[in-house]
């Protein structure tokens, strides 16, 4: 098998994202290029980003190697507008985008807390400043492409906050494709076909919960039921033996509705569950409403992360209503003969022994066994995060 190259990583990213139009996208109209040159496509730009980060990751600054990350925007205004939420420290003069300058700036950018902001300028790429993501509590999500080099010779490409593809040791690793259909289903359930980009980035909020669990360092289990399912489908009717360990929430924590409120689409939301739109609000400016909705989402996300520290699972509906926490999940309907771990090349044939894992792993596997529309997010105390899903009749452990 031939070694992989930056162009292969680019091709894998564009394929997984379904970005045929993006592949042909040119530089911003305002970017100047030589009269006899055609503007480079996004695919060419991404290949340049990956290749430059790869070499910058192996360059030293004062004898030290430093991790580094860049975020690409077609226009500088994308960092300075209200959405997405970035705090930009803008350089007076742009810096050339090459491995030497990236290595020099890496200690100042301090990835993953901040990124170097890269934009097209006069037909080439330039570092415009240092961008800090989500610097205010709006939890606005973006779809900007981020390229990071966490260690020498390793390059990962993100769409917003989700890692899509990673290059390491001559191989391309992708973790997302098998998760995407189910995440798309959850997104559609929450967004109810609303066009708002914010509403349709529900997976970003799920990732924020998982990231919060990792940062807390306590481990935890978050499970999402299938469409139309509730606690009765999981535990039976309230009060039976399986239900005794469950800490039910009445009313449920309506994260899905809060996300839709934040997107400004609450008027047309028809929730599939106990949560209702927020309805009337006191008279206030739209900016005050936006801040209130942002703070509400922020509080809910923080609370959900804390709930995962209680022994047991946090249970969410498919519409992301938090129904219960501290739940002892019921055993599988049938004996799980084998659990598989996804490999970097997306095969699902590596056996995973649950005997060597804790109770969370066994509970997560039991939760999804026989239910292909469910998903379980698990974080170990060592910080490893993964999902359990039933894929093609197999219970699969899929690292994030």
From TrEMBL:
InterPro entries: DACNV (IPR048551), DNA_integrity_DisA_N_sf (IPR036888). Pfam families: DACNV (PF21751). Transmembrane segments: none annotated. Residues 269-291 are annotated as: Disordered. Residues 43-131 form the Probable sensor domain. This is Diadenylate cyclase. The lineage of its organism: Bacteria, Pseudomonadati, Myxococcota, Polyangia, Polyangiales.
């Amino acid at each position: 098998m031939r070694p992989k190259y930056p162009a292969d990583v680019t091709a894998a990213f564009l394929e997984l994202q379904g970005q045929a139009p993006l592949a042909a996208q040119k530089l911003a109209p305002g970017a100047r290029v030589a009269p006899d040159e055609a503007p480079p496509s996004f695919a060419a730009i991404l290949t340049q980003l990956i290749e430059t980060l790869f070499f910058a990751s192996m360059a030293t600054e004062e004898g030290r190697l430093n991790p580094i990350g860049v975020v690409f925007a077609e226009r500088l205004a994308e960092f300075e507008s209200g959405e997405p939420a970035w705090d930009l420290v803008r350089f007076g003069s742009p810096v050339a985008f090459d491995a030497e300058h990236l290595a020099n700036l890496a200690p100042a950018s301090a990835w993953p807390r901040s990124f170097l902001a890269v934009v097209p300028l006069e037909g080439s790429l330039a570092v415009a400043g240092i961008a800090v993501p989500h610097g205010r509590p709006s939890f606005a999500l973006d779809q900007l492409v981020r390229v990071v080099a966490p260690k020498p010779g390793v390059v990962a490409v993100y769409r917003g906050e989700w890692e899509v593809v990673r290059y390491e040791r001559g191989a391309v690793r992708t973790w997302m494709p098998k998760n995407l259909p189910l995440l798309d289903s959850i997104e559609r359930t929450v967004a109810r076909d609303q066009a708002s980009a914010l509403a349709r980035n529900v997976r970003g909020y799920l990732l924020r919960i998982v990231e919060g669990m990792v940062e807390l360092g306590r481990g935890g289990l978050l499970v999402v039921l299938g469409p139309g399912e509730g606690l009765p489908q999981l535990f039976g009717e309230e009060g039976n033996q399986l239900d005794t360990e469950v800490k039910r929430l009445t009313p449920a924590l309506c994260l899905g509705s809060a996300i839709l409120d934040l997107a400004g689409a609450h008027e047309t939301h028809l929730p599939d569950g106990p949560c209702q739109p927020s309805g009337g609000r006191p008279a206030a400016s739209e900016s005050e409403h936006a801040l209130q909705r942002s703070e509400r989402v922020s509080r809910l996300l923080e609370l959900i992360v804390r709930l995962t520290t209680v022994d047991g699972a946090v249970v969410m509906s498919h519409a992301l209503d938090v129904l219960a926490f501290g739940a002892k999940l019921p055993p599988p309907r049938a004996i799980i003969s084998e659990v598989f771990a996804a490999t970097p090349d997306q095969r699902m044939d590596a056996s995973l022994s649950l005997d060597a894992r804790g109770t969370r792993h066994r509970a997560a596997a039991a939760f999804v066994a026989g239910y292909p529309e469910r998903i379980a997010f698990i974080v170990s105390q060592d910080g490893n995060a993964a999902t359990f899903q039933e894929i093609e009749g197999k219970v699969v452990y899929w690292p994030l």
